[in-house]
Amino acid sequence: MLIEKTFRQKTSLAIRQTLPFVTAFVAALLMATQTHVPRLNSMMPMLSLGVVFFWSVHRPQLFGMGAAFVIGLLQDLVTGVPLGLGTLILLLTRAILAPQARLFLGRPFVVHWWGFILLSAAVAAVSWLVAAVVLGVLAPIHLVVMSALLGVVAFPVTYGICSLFERLLAEEP
Amino acid sequence: MKGSAVTGRWHTARLLLQRFAFVALVGATFALMLLGKADTILVERARTVVVDAMAPVIRALSQPAGAIAEISDNVRDLANLRAENARLREENEQLLRWRDMARTLEAENAQFQSLLDYVPLPEARAFSIRVMGDTGGAFAHSVLVAAGARDNVRKGMAVLSGDGLVGRVAQVGRKASRVVLITDITSRVPVVLESTRTRAILAGNNSEKPRLIYLPAGARVSPGDRVVTSGHAGAFPPGIPVGVVSSVDDTVIRVQPYMDRDRLEIVRVVDYGLAGILGSLDEESRAAQAEALKAARERGKAQRLQDAQQSVPDGGEP
Q1: Contact between chains at A33 and B61 (C-beta distance less than 8 A)
Q2: Fold annotation for A2-170
Q3: Which of B3, B51, B166, B304 matches a 20 to 30 Å C-alpha distance to B205?
């Protein structure tokens, strides 16, 4: 009986520990769905960025750089953007944020949001430049800015959903 | 004391490993970027495999948005039913008049074709497929469709909506394919202005309104001019509606495409048997295309012979 419970606990823990990866995976695929909202698909926000931000701050040990690389690569392959663009963004986000987690942990949500706004601005600039170098032409800057703004607006929802999953991680089975 | 030294060393080793992993992964990312430029076939294959594998998940994730859009469309349609009915009656009357005119022109055209020994293009093969995903955001304009090689979709096929040209099939998986839209930054479509027959290239720029480039000097373009495919370079057959000129200024001429990216649900994939600028049709398609042209030439010869025989009076010499 005791062994069975331990096994169940272990399985439950193992499944819950995949939650950060699974949420980022779903966010990456959500970016490839058809929204039917006028003009939204032209400025689809990088939903995976908010998810990677959250897990890099709250559970970096469960969302390593390898996971960020895999999610970025998947996103690039599915969405058809220049290969390496999303991979670079998510990898740098994970690498920069995880050591700075103490700046955010225990602080109110507004601090996280400000952090994400700064991150989104940097990501918009870097992705526009990288896309320009890789494609050899300039993508419309207003769409890149709008995409970043939509990502900032969507961040509270992303944060809320990830917080719910994080509570599941903290619970004992 | 010894224990803490071991722990410290282990910690240092782990830190080094992490740093090395970061450097290796960043290196791998730049290698991917180079690979994307250098070996497009390999990258295309990788994209195809991943999209094929993820197709069921993307389709499932798209369903809620699709259902909401359908409900809102139904509500809007119900509200506009009376006005829509009146508009359709009027349109129907106009179309009936056009039909009569088209029949006359068709007969006249057939007569001219037989006189000129004209070799028609191979007949197009078309089928409708569902759009399951819209990808790319600000950096690419493409849609994923729920049909692939098993449904006879081939690279380079033209994709149309009820309104006009949507794009072309760029990657084909087994169950899903990617269609690059005419608004994509990599898209170049040879077009003509319908009224003046001025040639140009429609260049996508990832915005909703692509630009017209490479117009001849002194070309006159005005807002409202219809833009259709020119048929040059074998990318698309001539005459497919593309859009209308929406604005003209000193430097840029913009076109409003007829296709509406946000309302694409069902698209028509048409095989005109054209290798096009992609030059990517396989041997089988090339053979089919050559066969179709040969058959058309033979039909023309047979028709000529028949006409010659008909023109000879009974018992007389031609």
Answers
A1: yes
A2: Arp2/3 complex 21 kDa subunit ARPC3 (1.10.1760)
A3: B51
